[in-house]
Amino acid sequence: MDDIYLDVGTNWLKSKVSDDFTTDTHLYIENIISSMSFGGGLRILDMCCGYGRVSIPLSKRGHFVVGFDVSETLLKSAESAKRKELLNNVMFVRADMLKLPFREKTFDIVLCMWASFNFVAHIEDQLNVINELAAILLPGGVAIIDLPNEHSSSEKLLTLDVSGSVYHYFQHTKRHLEHVLSSSLADSYKIEECMFGAKDRIIVVISKNV
Ligand SMILES: C[S@@+](CC[C@H](N)C(=O)[O-])C[C@H]1O[C@@H](n2cnc3c(N)ncnc32)[C@H](O)[C@@H]1O
């Protein structure tokens, strides 16, 4: 898979996100963490971690974080943030979410934040990713998928151009997500609508039975 950030760089992605959006993203995750009856650091997977916007603060709070992404450019930025903060409880690896390289029952929390799931173009792959993600959760674990809520009446596959790199982006609807999740292997799930900063979001929360 191509690194669409190779030319535009990490700063391009950073310029697309507001502090309010990131603050509300962290508040949402912290609420989930505090509702779980775990003591101590959690094992967290940050799928499509980008430059570590979510992984770095979570590792600073004492959790054990694995972040993966397909973009070498963004992973280099995540690594340099890790070095700058002298963190040894976060690791970044290159991987493709369509071929998750993790064992079953490995993580307490799996995160897929800020539209990363929109990069999964085909419905069969969306179902596979959700099934894989449910499989790598430990009993009692929770996965969160955060997507833009376009309030559109129908889901659609868009072709976007980032500085000459063309990629597919699946615009989700609550109804479509309900359809995919209802045929998934997830033990249980809920689909919520909320705001992160000024942005409307759809949040999928998948829970694994204890
Ligand atoms: C909008 S960014 C979000 C980054 C990060 N999750 C965050 O919240 O800051 C989308 C990310 O998905 C990554 N991505 C897209 N397709 C991917 C794939 N198949 N496997 C792994 N990462 C992917 C991109 O490289 C990019 O880092």
Question: What is the compact description of this entry?
Answer:
32% of the residues lie in helices and 31% in strands. By secondary structure, it is α/β, with parallel strands linked by helices.
Fold topology:
Layout: H1 5-8, H2 10-14, H3 19-35, E1 43-47, H4 55-60, E2 64-69, H5 72-84, E3 90-94, E4 107-112, H6 123-135, E5 137-148, E6 156-162, E7 165-171, H7 174-182, E8 188-196, E9 199-207
Parallel strand pairs: 1-2, 1-4, 2-3, 4-5
Antiparallel strand pairs: 5-9, 6-7, 8-9
The protein binds S-adenosylmethionine (SAM).
The site of S-adenosylmethionine (SAM) has 18 residues, from loops.
Low-confidence stretches: none
Strands of the largest sheet, in order across it? 3-2-1-4-5-9-8
Question: Whole-number average pLDDT?
Answer: 94
Instruction: Name the shape in a single word.
Output: globular
Under the CATH scheme, which class?
Alpha Beta
Ions, cofactors and other ligands present here are: S-adenosylmethionine
- Class by helix and strand content? alpha/beta
Share of helical residues: 25-40%
So, the CATH homologous superfamily? Vaccinia Virus protein VP39
In percent terms, what proportion of residues is strand? 25-35%
- Report the CATH architecture: 3-Layer(aba) Sandwich
**Main beta-sheet strand count, sense and barrel state:** 7 strands, mixed
Order of helices and strands: HHHEHEHEEHEEEHEE
Distance between the termini: 36 Å
User: How many discrete structural domains?
Assistant: 1
Number of helices: 7
Q: Provide the CATH topology.
A: Rossmann fold
Radius of gyration: 16 Å
| Number of beta-strand segments | 9
